């Protein structure tokens, strides 16, 4: 989509050489860099990652299917509302209730009802016309936030810290991003910073093998800030293009865990004052309204710079992404509809809006 093109610099676009130089004289006094670190080097298999992985031809259909719960509710409700009634205040109120129940948020709901009511009171309007207006207004809200994850030439490595609560698909998203970057010939280092869960560490090791990426890991219960320090130091020494840093699934109401995430950020800055260069919050599309609270807390405490929404698999409450866009205006880099690497694709405002409206 045109809004995602930036002369080759996109979510899975070009990386550039150069960047900040390592600063070995700085010491991570808050971390424990002297602790034992496991560096897993995958088997050399360049052919496994040399060719770009193409998106499946039916991406829009899969996205539409993934948003089926939201679009079906809207389509059925709109049809029922406008099949036999003229447009009046009561109809507008009923439409407003329907849109709010679909998680679109008050601001977007007001925009849609105002656009539909303009010049049409006491006149007939078809359900298809209402859905056209719905698609147009949702696209208008989403277009400003449909932004690729730009890798800046001045950063080497470009540090991407992934955050989010347990179960959102954060570690899997890291694996998918690594697959995309490696398919473009970029060198990527993975850091298993979710040291609280053995499963998360093991999962990242598997992705390391699949993608041909080295993995920095520690034993379960190890200091995550110390691991982040060691990972960035290793990435600088090896000349890696990208460092993808996993973090624990920090529940937004757990003060200690949020403080630990802030500590990871401070430690990274001891080696590179500009790091992390992106803090990407992974959201579960089935979460609904709770996602708004997650965005607010992680933005305030972790400095979130962009979003990825996962699990648009048919049970999703995808309308919440519209409400999030209207309230916070944070860039939405990508959406995911499944488990395979090509099920994560750059975010398109037009595709998402038309899928929501069932168009």
Could you please describe the fold and organization of this structure?
This protein has 359 residues and is an alpha/beta fold. The protein has one domain: P-loop containing nucleotide triphosphate hydrolases (Rossmann fold, 3-Layer(aba) Sandwich). Helices cover 44% and strands 11% of the residues. It has a 9-stranded mixed β-sheet with strand order 1-4-3-5-2-6-7-8-9, with helices on both faces. Helix 12 links the parallel strand 7 and strand 8. The longest helix has 17 residues. The chain is elongated, with a radius of gyration of 22 Å. It starts with 37 loop residues before the first strand and ends with a helix.
Provide the gyration radius in Å.
Answer: 22 Å
Count of helical segments?
13
Mean pLDDT: 84
Shape: elongated
Order of helices and strands: EHHHHHHEHEHEHEHEHEHEEH
CATH-scheme architecture: 3-Layer(aba) Sandwich
- Would you identify the CATH H-level superfamily? P-loop containing nucleotide triphosphate hydrolases
What do we call the CATH topology?
A: Rossmann fold
């Amino acid at each position: 989509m045109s809004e995602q093109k930036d002369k080759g610099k996109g979510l899975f676009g070009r990386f550039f050489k150069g960047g900040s130089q390592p600063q070995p004289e700085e010491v991570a006094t808050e971390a424990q860099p002297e602790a034992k670190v496991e560096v897993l080097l995958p088997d050399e298999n360049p052919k496994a990652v040399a060719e770009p992985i193409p998106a499946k031809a039916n991406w829009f259909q899969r996205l539409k299917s993934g948003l089926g719960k939201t679009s079906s509710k809207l389509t059925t409700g709109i049809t029922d509302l406008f099949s036999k009634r003229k447009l009046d205040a009561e109809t507008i109120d009923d439409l407003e209730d329907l849109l709010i129940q679909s998680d679109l948020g008050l601001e977007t709901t007001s925009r849609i009802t105002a656009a539909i009511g303009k010049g049409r009171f006491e006149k007939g309007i078809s359900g298809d016309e209402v859905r056209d207006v719905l698609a147009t207004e949702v696209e208008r809200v989403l277009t400003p936030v449909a932004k690729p994850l730009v890798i800046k030439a001045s950063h080497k490595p470009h540090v991407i810290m992934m955050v989010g609560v347990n179960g959102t698909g954060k570690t899997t998203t890291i694996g998918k991003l690594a697959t995309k970057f490696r398919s473009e010939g970029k060198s990527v280092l993975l850091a298993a910073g979710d040291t609280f869960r053995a499963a998360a560490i093991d999962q990242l090791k598997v992705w390391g093998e699949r993608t041909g990426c080295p993995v920095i890991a520690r034993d379960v219960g190890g200091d995550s800030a110390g691991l982040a320090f060691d990972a960035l130091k290793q990435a600088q020494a090896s000349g890696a293009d990208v460092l993808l840093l996993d973090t624990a699934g920090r529940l937004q109401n757990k003060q200690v865990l949020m403080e630990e995430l802030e500590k990871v950020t401070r430690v990274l800055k001891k080696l590179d004052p500009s790091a992390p260069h992106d803090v990407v919050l992974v959201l579960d599309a089935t979460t609904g309204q709770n996602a708004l609270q997650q965005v607010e807390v992680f933005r305030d405490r972790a400095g979130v710079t962009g979003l990825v929404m996962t699990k648009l698999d048919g049970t999703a409450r995808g309308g919440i992404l519209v409400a999030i866009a209207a309230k916070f205006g944070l860039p939405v880099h990508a959406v995911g509809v499944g488990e395979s690497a090509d099920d994560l694709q750059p975010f398109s405002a037009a595709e998402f809006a038309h899928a929501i409206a069932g168009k």
